[in-house]
TrEMBL record:
Belongs to the flavodoxin family. The keyword Glycoprotein does not apply. Its cofactor is FMN. Keywords: Electron transport, Flavoprotein, FMN, Membrane, Transmembrane, Transmembrane helix, Transport. Pfam families: Flavodoxin_1. GO terms for molecular function: FMN binding. It comes from the Bacteria. Residues 41-182 form the Flavodoxin-like domain. It comes from Candidatus Magasanikbacteria bacterium CG_4_10_14_0_2_um_filter_33_14. InterPro entries: Flavdoxin-like, Flavodoxin, Flavodoxin/NO_synth, Flavoprotein-like_sf. This is Flavodoxin-like domain-containing protein.
Length: 185
């Protein structure tokens, strides 16, 4: 009798344990899925000759294919406050002059610094275009990163330097980097 009772209790325990395990897996999958659906991403870019825009556009396609909710923003027509509604912002910039920011990004960040509340709850990842023939290759990314951090923003992954004209190799490189960035969510 005692043995039968023990076996029954063991079986019930086993079933309960399995059910609990299945429920945990089920609810955590639903939670992850909901988070993916509700996480808002923007790709905000500043470009002078269109290269950063091309990368931004590819990045948008890549993220849309992965079912993320993504907006593409040209910083020329974007108000600083608009960035606050996003959980993650991919900021695209390019390098000019003697290792300076392109003018559009420079103006945008100066406005952000004046208001000084760009991004407390937004996370950032920066892609920076340049040309390795210049001594300050793609240094714009470093300038943007420093400014964002000084404004209290969080840069979740080191910026990527993109060399020259956008090509299929460049697109592959940026996709790999994007997957790394997304691991932080
Ligand atoms: C006048 C001029 C200055 C540039 N200066 C730099 C530089 O200092 N460092 C760098 O890495 N790239 C430099 N570049 C290359 C640009 O950053 C590169 O072409 C980039 O892809 C341009 O992106 P955009 O079309 O989105 O503005 C310069 C390009 C031009 C035309």
């Amino acid at each position: 009798m005692f043995i039968i009772l023990s076996v029954v209790i063991l079986c019930i325990n086993y079933l309960l344990y399995n059910t609990l395990y299945i429920l945990i897996v089920y609810f955590s999958s639903i939670f992850c899925l909901l988070f993916l659906v509700y996480m808002k991403i923007s790709i905000a870019f500043a470009t002078l000759s269109g290269n950063t825009e091309k990368i931004a556009y590819e990045l948008e396609k890549f993220l849309l294919n992965k079912s993320y909710d993504v907006d593409l923003l040209n910083l020329e027509n974007t108000k600083v406050d608009e960035l606050k509604k996003y959980d993650l912002v991919f900021l695209g910039c390019s390098t000019y002059g003697d290792g300076d920011l392109n003018l559009i990004m420079d103006i945008f960040l100066s406005e952000a610094e004046q208001i000084c509340h760009l991004c407390e709850s937004t996370k950032f990842a920066i892609f920076s275009l340049g040309d390795s023939i210049y001594p300050n290759f793609a240094i714009a990314g470093e300038i943007v990163e420093d400014k964002i951090i000084n404004m209290g923003g969080e840069v979740i992954h080191p910026y990527i330097k993109i060399d020259g004209y956008p090509s299929s190799e460049v697109f592959e490189e940026i996709k790999k980097w994007t997957l790394e960035v997304l691991k932080f969510f």
